[in-house]
Amino acid sequence: MTLAAGDPQPAATPAPLPVPPVEPPPGSADKTTQKVDATYIWLIVIAQFGVFVAFITPIAISLAIRVQQLAPGHEDYLGYITGAGAMVPLLLSPLLGVLSDRTRSRLGRRRPWMLGGTVIGVVSLVVMALAPSILVLGLGWLLAQLGWGTTFANLQTSTADRLPEEQRGRVAGLSGFAQQIGPVVGVVIAGGLSGSNLLLFLVPGAIGVLLVVLFTGVVPERDSRGLAVGEPLSVATLAAKYLYHPRRYPDFSWNWLGRFLFYLGLTFNTTFTAFFFADRLDVPVEEVAGLIAVLGGVGVLATAAGAIGGGFLSDRLHRRRPFVLAAGSVFGLGAVLMAVAPGRPVLFAGSLICSLGIGAFAAVDQALLLDVLPERQTAAGRFMGITGFATSIPQASGPFIAPLFLAVGAAGGAKNYTLLYAVAAACTVLGGLVVLRIKSVK
Questions:
Q1: Phi/psi zone of residue 125: left (φ > 0), alpha (ψ -120 to 50 degrees), beta?
Q2: Phi, psi of 366 (to 5 degrees)
Q3: Closest Cα to residue 363, out of 296, 401, 321, 308?
Q4: CA 393, 396, 400, 405: dihedral to nearest 10 degrees?
Q5: Where is this region: Disordered (predicted)?
Q6: Residue 439, number of CB atoms within 10 A of its CB
Q7: How far is CA 10 from CA 21, 33, 54, in A?
């Protein structure tokens, strides 16, 4: 999921015009930010947890229940709805990031967007709960992507504004853990509320609202009304914000490419999971659902272990790049094991190893991103939005590319899953190798 999210400078009087903040050299890590206290860390972690409870629960269970109610036997509608929703961050992330960067208010730059996104998110949950048709249900999900996605993006951009280098790994690790546990908690809650559509959506939503409001109410953000606004916005200048000069910010560009390659491999690995397991275990697809659910539950623990362990160790050792490479390689090892697995034990072991690699990569690469983020003081939201393309483009294109590998050498309706999973492994390892080109971070 990715739309663009503080520690702006103190308010200034209207005249003379404020002097724009001095940026560190392009691509360099900002080592001047002061350490944040434990209150900020825990509140931003639980705020992200709340957003994931509210936002991911519909994907995990609530939307499927409503689709079944409104269009029995048309499970494919769920794919159409979620696919359409994925276009929202793809199209709007940098735009909303720019608007967040340019917000001038007594509440600061990020908090208005967190609160506004939460309001839209709650409205979206009501729309989905009461939707009389599939079309309205889909519109509700588009609103959810806009609302909760905006809130989450500004929470992440807040970490870009606030966190010094030595705290980025641990916060990214804790956030990764919260994001893994959030959907599990949401599904458990929703499982007992399926008899009421409103409660099914609004109870998880209430958790999100409570924790986001807690963060915005307790964590102060400086008045941004005195900050320089910059050039006037027009359609042309807004369109230009979707692009940047890679040579000007080479370390950010290498990080973007490494993330793109990793998530492309991840998409190849996960898109056809049910069919892959059915093929390897020689059972109908319907019979692997429970197995995948159990494996997914254990996988959450492996992902969380990778996120917390990788994040904390990268801070303690003051190293990012080796951990990103290790995470990509661990995932690649798991994917290869799955590709050649002769039976369940190796297949399951490979899946859990992949989960470990996912957690470690997500946490440490997020910290590395914050280390190399350009124009941190003036355009963090914009560049966080551009980073979102590195995950949304692979997630959107991967399912269309994967069948090309599945068809290689296949005959009689068979699928070449071995090749697909080998390509997935190659992509994630290459993603880890690419970040070694970064010069400003160890």
A1: alpha
A2: -65, -45
A3: 308
A4: 60
A5: 1-31
A6: 12
A7: 11, 15, 33
Looking at residue 344, what is its pLDDT? 87
Tell me which residue has tokens 């970490």: 159
Q: What is the pLDDT of residue 24?
A: 46
State which residues of the chain have pLDDT below 50: 1-32
| Residue the block writes with tokens 């399951």 | 348
Residues in the chain: 442
Residue 323: the pLDDT is: 96
Rg over CA atoms, the chain? 22
Provide the pLDDT for residue 411.
67
Using the structure block, give the residue that is written with the tokens 């967040």. Answer: 100
User: Which burial class, exposed, middle or buried, applies to 411 when counting CB atoms under 10 A from its CB (0-12, 13-18, 19+)?
Assistant: exposed
Domains observed in the chain: 1-9+21-243 (1.20.1250.20), 244-442 (1.20.1250.20)
pLDDT reported for residue 288: 78
pLDDT of residue 338: 94
State the pLDDT at residue 3. Answer: 37
Question: pLDDT at position 204, please?
Answer: 93
